[in-house]
Amino acid sequence: ANLDGTRDLGMLRCVLLATAAAGASAFTAPALFTRTSTRAAVARGPNMQLYKEGVLQGMGTNAIPGADRPANLDGTLVGDVGFDPLGFSNWLDLRWAREAEIKHGRVAMLAATGMIVQDVYTFPGVTKTFGDAKMTTLHDVAVKQGSMQQLLVWLGLLEIFGFVAIVQMLQGSDRQPGDFGFDPLNCAANPDTLARRQLVELKNGRLAMIATGGMLHHYFITGKGPIQLITG
């Protein structure tokens, strides 16, 4: 039994190492992702910010009053308000940075939705499988039962394909950050509508990243989900 347990642990470590390496592109910036020219990161970006409300952002907006607007934030990226106090745009390819921001924003929107839903609805079979666990406790139970390992493997495989698309973009393809050609509802048919939706996604993703961090810390302190915390 000890031998089988050791073998299983070794296999799990190999899986974790492989999938972690595949997903590392979202969190690290090797030489490929560093800026090679001051214009490379924004040359292909859409020339818009917030349609018909351009007074609220773009080249005419400076997020830090009294400071010079970063030279490489020229208003071509969706959601650009000139905020870069640490100067990342001077050395990091903004296409890679935007790719990471969109990816994390999408994950955070899914996470925030899941945290709220589990407080108001229980899907069939969940209680039987995981009991009353939620938030990070549910994560720990899923890890113990092997469910999270399966997710890690399959999502790691998806990250491999995503990494290839990102590399092609940084090497000069016409691909835009976050675009994987998945549009079953044909949302990109109207350029004006698409531009607005891109901005909405970006801002909702930024909000979701903050909200997810807040809900997690509330749970660490109180042991309650977001809705439970509000309702007492």
Describe this structure in words.
About 55% of the residues lie in helices and about 0% in strands. The chain is mostly helical. Helix 1 packs parallel to helix 5 and helix 2 crosses helix 6. The protein is globular, with a radius of gyration of 21 Å.
Strand-helix topology:
Layout: H1 2-23, H2 94-120, H3 126-130, H4 135-145, H5 147-170, H6 191-222, H7 226-231
Number of DSSP helical runs: 7
Written as H for each helix and E for each strand, in order along the chain, the element string is HHHHHHH
Radius of gyration: 21 Å
> Major β-sheet, in short?
none
Question: pLDDT average, as an integer?
Answer: 78
Percent strand: under 5%
Broad structural category: mainly alpha
**End-to-end span in angstroms?**
46 Å
Count of distinct strands = 0
Helix content: 40-55%
Coarse shape: globular
User: Which stretches of 5+ consecutive residues score pLDDT under 50?
Assistant: 1-6, 20-31, 36-49, 51-56
